[in-house]
């Protein structure tokens, strides 16, 4: 039992603790009032102070970054750099990379990147040694000695020697191999004197010898066991070609389920052992397209770095970011070839009238790009070209006189007739915007003279058949002449025969004076002598008017962005665009100045 004294003690302790709690509460209220509520008004000033320091730090950081960038721009600059993938679109079909057979645009392009020749054309379109180190000729002009470089390897690491060159031309000379180069080489003997020396013996002096040794060389150690008759279809051509060129074969992919949608994609890698400099592009891809529309869509979609084969540039292509256009003169000529073997163009007066009734500058004025006029069978840059022996000038009065003398008189309708028959013929051309514009002008000009011309614009495939069969009255067509004035293949009577392998004499022109001059010109090495020998040919060509010379064509190349070190001034062929391809670059990097 708790006594009264104990109860009083507990009561005093309880009161004491209550008082302590009350004092603690009062003290807490006073503390909050003194240290929080009274200082709450100063918080805005604290935040303002903190924000000021934060803003200062941000300004310092931004200023530092800007100064670093400014200093970087001052001490650094953008320069072309190695690397990147170059994807080139080409209209056509890939079938064969072997330089002994490659003829189409796609085949020749792949072959040119994978294989090398003894000679090549440089950026100025001049012949220079490639696999060859030197090329010399003896006093007879028929024996050429070629010294080879000693630092060349095949893509499989094997050394390149004179035996490979002799083997290549031996295969070309074998009729069983069926190479398009057969007729050029069939009478030339080739022998390897040592590992790096070859001797070529020609039956006659040939001024263009250095031009004909630009074809690619193939490896003896890989092909010597293959029968020549089987070489054209061997897997070497499409699955595992081995060359000495700047790029080596990687892979071939075929896409598309129909003939119209089919595409070949050829992947190439840099040849790290290339005898000049290893290519700077990491990967080179060639994609084939069956028509222009497919290729343009791929370019617009960012899938292509460049395009080959466009006749003109669609407006939508010009709107693509980083669009670049190159119009590079080709050493060739676009002409209207008159079939001189059949009426009505077998009459020289009719042909003269056709030439003199055309203003060439107006005929090519609608091309949409600058080009050079061609005034005869030779270009102005050729040895032997003469200002005095150019194509007959425009003269409508004289043209009408020639037609009258030939018995072609205008009737009431304005059409010329003879013995009740109209003066009419067909003009064939490939269906391109350029040729369409030119043929439209020619048709109008000749109609004004009373001549009825039916224009037949053909697809590329159909045109090949028309040209090979000579199935036309007249033909608007381009020919590749080159830097040398030897135009034997286009104007010598032997090249008009159906038995001729190439049959490139599209006018079927025959002239004893022209034949003699062409034969003499190609067998003279001295430029002055050659020039003099071509004089009678130019005179005969002018008077006989077997063709209407128009303009020097241009190679149209479209790229996305700048291709650094791509600077050709003119091209001998479209594959000459690859001159210096090992130095091409498509990327940029910052470097210190």
Please describe what this structure looks like.
With 593 residues, this protein is an alpha+beta fold. It folds into 4 domains: 35 residues; 158 residues, Periplasmic binding protein-like II (D-Maltodextrin-Binding Protein, domain 2); 115 residues, Dipeptide-binding Protein, domain 1; 222 residues, Dipeptide-binding Protein, Domain 3 (Dipeptide-binding Protein, domain 3, Roll). Helices cover 33% and strands 22% of the residues. It has 19 helices and 23 strands. The strands form 6 sheets. Strands 9-10-11-2-12-22-13 form a 7-stranded mixed sheet. Strands 19-18-20-14-21 form a 5-stranded mixed sheet. Strands 5-6-8-7 form a 4-stranded antiparallel sheet, covered by helices on one side. Helix 14 links the parallel strand 18 and strand 19. Helix 11 runs antiparallel to helix 13 and helix 17 runs antiparallel to helix 19.
Structural class of the helix and strand makeup? alpha+beta
In terms of DSSP E residues, the strand content is: 15-25%
| Helical percentage | 25-40%
Q: Average pLDDT value? A: 91
Can you tell me the number of structural domains?
4
Instruction: Give the neighbour order of strands across the main sheet.
Output: 9-10-11-2-12-22-13
What is the multimeric organization of the chains shown?
single chain
CATH superfamily of the largest domain: Dipeptide-binding Protein, Domain 3
CATH fold field value of the largest domain: Dipeptide-binding Protein, domain 3
Terminal Cα separation, in Å? 105 Å
